[in-house]
Amino acid sequence: AADLVWDRNSGTVTHRVGGRVADGVDDTAITAVLSKWSAIAYVKARAAADPVTLAVPTGSQTYSVGQQFEFTMTGATKPFLTLFNLPPDGRVESFMPETAKDVETDWRDRKFSVELKVAKPPYGAEHMVAILTDRPATALQEALRSMSTADRAGGLAATLRSTLADTPFQAGVVSIYTAGGE
After folding, report:
1. Pairwise CA distance, residues 41 & 146, whole Å
2. CA–CA distance, 89 with 108 (Å, rounded to integer)
3. What is the pLDDT of residues 141-163, one digit of tens each?
């Protein structure tokens, strides 16, 4: 049984456990969606050895347009943070580092908390990913910034595997479900 099923006619992708995870997926976007889920599996497998705790304290629910929620990270044992979101369409939204100060910030034993708001499509299963390393992961960060559209993000899983291959890292993933409220 496949983990993901794409209905080409309706453009929906469903997960065997989580139900519908993406809408509006066409022939060009399916590669990025599949790469996203492969990347999540890779990060989760590697995170098992040295996890960081990512959470949405209000719990697992579907957040609609206009709703705000808190996202937190605790338990960092490595200093340098790369934080990004994977929307339902498979593209990459880079969050951290944003500034030169962020690049130098030591996240060990610090709590990270930010308020997020559901604002625009695509809606469905989003995944916030944190990767912490002993040195700034500049090659990874540059690659992630270049994947800001689904047509450029098809190589996400391969990029994570290659840029992190010989790098000890701590990681975490949290699912955030969003809806357009139509």
Report:
1. 21
2. 32
3. 999 999 999 999 999 999 999 99
Predicted TM-score (pTM) of this structure: 0.92
Contact between 151 and 92 under an 8 Å Cβ cutoff? The reply is no
Round to whole Å and give the CA distance between 16 and 82: 29
Q: Identify the H or E element spanning 19.
A: strand 19-22
* Both tokens assigned to 70: 């808190």
Q: What is the mean pLDDT of each run of 10 residues along the chain (182 residues)?
A: 90 86 89 93 90 92 93 95 95 94 90 91 93 96 95 93 93 92 59
Give the C-alpha separation, 21 to 164, whole Å.
27
Q: Are 47 and 28 in contact (CB under 8 A)?
A: no
* CB 25, CB 89: distance < 8 Å: yes
Question: How does DSSP assign 143-178, residue by residue?
Answer: HHHTT-SGGG-TTHHHHHHHHHTT--EEEEEEEEEE
Task: Round to whole Å and give the CA distance between 169 and 130.
Answer: 10
